[in-house]
Specification:
Elements (H helix, E strand, L loop, with lengths): L8 H17 L12 H4 L5 H5 L5 H37 L3 H13 L1 H13 L1 H29 L5 H20 L9 H6 L2 H4 L3 H8 L3 E5 L4 E3 L7 E7 L2 E4 L12 E2 L4 E2 L1 H6 L6 E4 L3 E7 H10 L1 H19 L1 H4 L4 H10 L2 E5 L4 E4 L3 E11 L10 E5 L11 H5 L4 E4 L2 E13 L3 H9 L8 E9 L6 E9 L15 E4 L1
Parallel strand pairs: 12-13
Antiparallel strand pairs: 1-8, 2-7, 3-6, 3-8, 4-5, 4-7, 9-14, 10-14, 10-17, 11-12, 11-14, 15-16
Helix pairs in contact: 1-4, 4-5, 4-6, 7-8, 13-14, 14-16, 16-18
Protein name: Cyclic nucleotide-binding domain-containing protein
GO molecular function, one term: sodium:proton antiporter activity
Organism: Triticum urartu
Length: 488
């Protein structure tokens, strides 16, 4: 790989040193060449200090990308070398017990390398573009040189012509080595502009909000906030994925408890003043922005339509937390569609009765309700009619009994002013799928897909970045039939 120009001399030295160190221990320990590479692959210990310091973000990003770039080369080379070695070992020893043990040790050693590359695929796809471009360019130029040599040997080119073309190729190769393509990170303005929360706000309120943002880069496994802690602000996830877990909300009912890029986390807690509902832990390298709760309070007071939009945005996250088996089948874009155009958000005053029709459900966002033979219902919670078919929600009767966030009753009496989001379960999937295929919908999106495929054809990863259009801010109650009857 060094001769082919796929890795640098420095990377080759690091890899060979790890092999030498593992060879010294092979008689007493399993394969351990990866242990020597970990310090060269993972982020340096001082990076957390840099991310919290007052240094310019471009300066911090430069060092981060330098480490990521080197780590990608090391991991890719490590995996390829082990793949070749496993193939050669199996050809030599066959399906013997010794070969099986060594191959298992080799596969186990490559898990961390695969995990690192997967994080980079999800968070910095542009970095992989640069690495692939360099390797492909080198391979093309090398192949061109070989073709020129063959043409000269067959007599189709004279020696002077061959030398002239070879000089041109060598010049291009030197340019590639001396001035490789630079890694261009997405600009902060571009990241925020394509985020649904920021991109859909009026320009008059957007600028003051963004002037107080704090950019953060979190490594895998870092906590954005923990269940029960005080909400100090919101997290705008621009790149990466975040995993949630909760004792109260029973995340075991979720098959894929992941919030992808484009999510707004902590907004509901800021709007209601409640403590954090769950743990939010990064599931990859995450580039995000933090906005203090005080700025969100100022934003919601600026315009009633802005406040209604903030409630809609927060409801999209709450729906995924409370009814994961239904909403995890939908993307965040589809969930926002359902909340904004396929549901109604109603306000109820004290003393009113809420009676849900068959196959309509509600999500209590704020206020206090009372149902027959039940204690006071506090938000957030799922409100079901007593004759609700629980299979539509992916629940059984026994499962609902264990969830203290789901309630079933013929009617609910309002004890304190309540805000309830109501939608029809039967239309949930049909509306989402219909809007997804509608080219001129109010929340259409363009997808940028990047396919990264190894030359062996063994793996393929598709990275999709949604770029949503702006949504008009309007009455939050506009939408489908409410499916609810008021009483007093």
């Amino acid at each position: 790989m060094l001769d082919q120009g796929q890795i640098t001399q420095a990377t080759a030295n690091i890899l060979m040193r790890s092999v030498d160190e593992a060879m010294d221990l092979v008689s007493s320990r399993p394969l351990c060449d990866w242990n020597s590479l970990q310090s060269s692959v993972y982020f340096p210990s001082y990076y957390r200090f840099l991310s919290a310091s007052m240094l310019p973000q471009s300066f911090i990003t430069y060092f981060t990308v330098q480490r990521l770039e080197s780590g990608c080369y090391i991991c890719a080379t490590f995996l390829r070398a082990h793949r070749i070695a496993r193939r050669q070992l199996q050809n030599f020893l066959g399906d013997s017990e010794i070969a099986k043990i060594v191959i298992d040790e080799s596969n186990a050693g490559g898990e961390e390398a695969r995990k690192f590359l997967e994080e980079v695929r999800c968070t910095f796809p542009q970095l992989l573009c640069v690495l692939k471009t360099r390797q492909v360019t080198y391979a093309v130029l090398t192949h061109l040189s070989e073709n020129v040599q063959n043409l000269w040997k067959t007599g189709l080119l004279e020696e002077k012509e061959m030398a002239h073309l070879d000089d041109a190729w060598q010049t291009d190769l030197k340019k590639l080595k001396r001035n490789p393509q630079l890694v261009k990170m997405p600009r902060v303005g571009d990241l925020l502009g394509t985020h649904p929360l920021v991109g859909m706000l009026p320009a008059a309120v957007r600028a003051p909000l963004l002037s107080n943002k704090k950019e953060k880069v979190k490594g895998h496994g870092a906590a954005l906030y923990m269940e029960g802690s005080r909400a100090t602000g919101i997290w705008i996830v621009s790149i990466g994925a975040v995993k949630w877990r909760s004792q109260r909300l029973s995340s075991r009912h979720s098959l894929h408890p992941i919030f992808p890029h484009g999510s707004t986390l902590g907004l509901y807690e800021v709007l209601t003043g409640k403590s954090c509902l769950c743990d939010m832990i990064t599931d990859s390298l995450v580039r995000c922005f933090f906005i203090e709760a005080e700025k969100i309070d100022q934003l919601r007071r600026s315009d009633p339509s802005v406040e209604a939009f903030l409630w809609q945005e927060s409801a999209a996250v709450i729906a995924k937390l409370l009814i994961p088996r239904v909403f995890e089948k939908m993307t965040m874009q589809e969930t926002r569609l359902l909340v904004s155009t396929g549901s109604t958000m109603n306000l109820y005053t004290k003393g009113e009765d809420i009676m849900l029709e068959h196959n309509y459900i509600g999500i209590l966002l704020e206020g206090t309700l009372k149902a027959e033979n039940q204690n006071s219902i506090l938000p957030p919670g799922v409100l079901l009619p007593s004759n609700m078919d629980l299979e539509l929600l992916g629940l059984e009767s026994s499962a609902m009994n264990r969830m203290d966030s789901c309630y079933a009753a013929d009617s609910y009496q309002v004890e304190a002013q309540a805000r309830v989001l109501i939608f029809e379960v039967g239309r949930l999937f049909t509306e989402a799928n219909g809007q997804r295929n509608q080219p001129g919908g109010s929340f259409s999106a363009e997808a940028l897909q990047l396919s990264v495929e190894e030359s062996t054809g063994e793996e393929q990863v598709i990275i999709t970045v949604d770029s949503p259009n702006k949504l008009p801010l309007g009455d939050s109650s506009a939408g489908s039939s409410s499916g609810v009857t008021r009483g007093s």
